[in-house]
Structure to design on (268 residues):
């Protein structure tokens, strides 16, 4: 139950979001996308946005910068006018449980909530935020985590003028040096944050200001996770194969990189 002042402020926010949705709907023609826009801004999500706006983490919400089956990332600004990225997990999607179960099984944070999609999504958003915090505190290049509430994460916006930085897949000037930069981040993530990204690829690494910046950490697992080793091998193979596909000379084997990431050798 919210009080009179809060209800008034919420109605003001509701109107603001409603205007955003109307303007956004006018820019899109796909009916499925319109449905998703409406799913994103359900009552519970609006209440969570209200809380984050009330705390100053969000002041204005702009357009979509990334759209997936499970979440939408919007650009915006905080109360000081700083650009932020707002990741909103869809609470009504049926894809979530099916695609994420292999990362959830065995994780104590998800015990007892397998049959509650909403609780699972909230726990997943919390997990992504905490993984980001661990990686950021370990010195890994990731978007700076700012705030989390229920199905929403607020983080540093990576890019200029609300235009997201290119991913490795989009970056035109790949080199062997960039490959080594990426491998160093995987090593830092493993040794200092004690995490394995578990889904790393050219699609979830920005290249911005001469740095590879890793993102999408929801599926990341601790290094003691029973599948951490197989996820790490997959991550490394994804990166090596991508650079080879772009005709970058890669004189490294999987074993070379695994030894480097684990710390049994100082360089690759």
């Amino acid at each position: 139950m919210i009080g009179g002042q809060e209800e008034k402020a919420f109605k003001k926010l509701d109107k603001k979001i409603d205007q955003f949705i109307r303007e956004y709907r006018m820019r899109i023609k796909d009916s499925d996308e319109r449905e998703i826009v409406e799913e994103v801004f359900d009552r519970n999500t609006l209440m969570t946005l209200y809380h984050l706006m009330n705390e100053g983490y969000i002041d204005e919400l702009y357009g979509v910068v990334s759209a997936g089956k499970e979440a939408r990332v919007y650009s915006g600004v905080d109360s000081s006018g700083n650009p932020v990225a707002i990741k909103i997990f869809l609470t009504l999607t049926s894809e979530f449980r099916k695609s994420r179960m292999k990362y959830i099984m065995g994780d104590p944070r998800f015990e007892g909530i397998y049959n509650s999609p909403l609780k699972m999504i909230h726990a997943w958003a919390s997990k992504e935020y905490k993984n980001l915090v661990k990686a950021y505190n370990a010195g890994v290049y990731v978007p700076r985590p700012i705030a989390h509430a229920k199905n929403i994460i607020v983080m540093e916006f990576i890019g200029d003028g609300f235009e997201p930085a290119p991913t490795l897949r989009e970056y035109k000037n790949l080199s062997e040096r960039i490959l080594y930069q990426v491998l160093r981040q995987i090593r830092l993530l493993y040794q200092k944050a004690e995490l394995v990204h578990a889904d790393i690829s050219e699609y979830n690494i920005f290249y911005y200001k001469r740095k590879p910046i890793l993102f999408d950490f929801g599926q990341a697992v601790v290094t003691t996770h029973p599948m951490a080793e197989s996820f790490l091998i997959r991550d490394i193979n994804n990166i090596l194969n991508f650079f080879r596909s772009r005709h970058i000379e890669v004189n490294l084997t999987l074993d070379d990189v695994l030894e480097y990431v684990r710390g049994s050798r100082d360089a690759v």
In short: The chain has a mean pLDDT of 85. The domain at 4-160 is CATH 3.30.200.20 (Phosphorylase Kinase; domain 1). Helices lie at 4-27, 31-40, 43-54, 95-104, 117-137, 176-191, 228-245, 254-262. The longest helix spans residues 4-27.
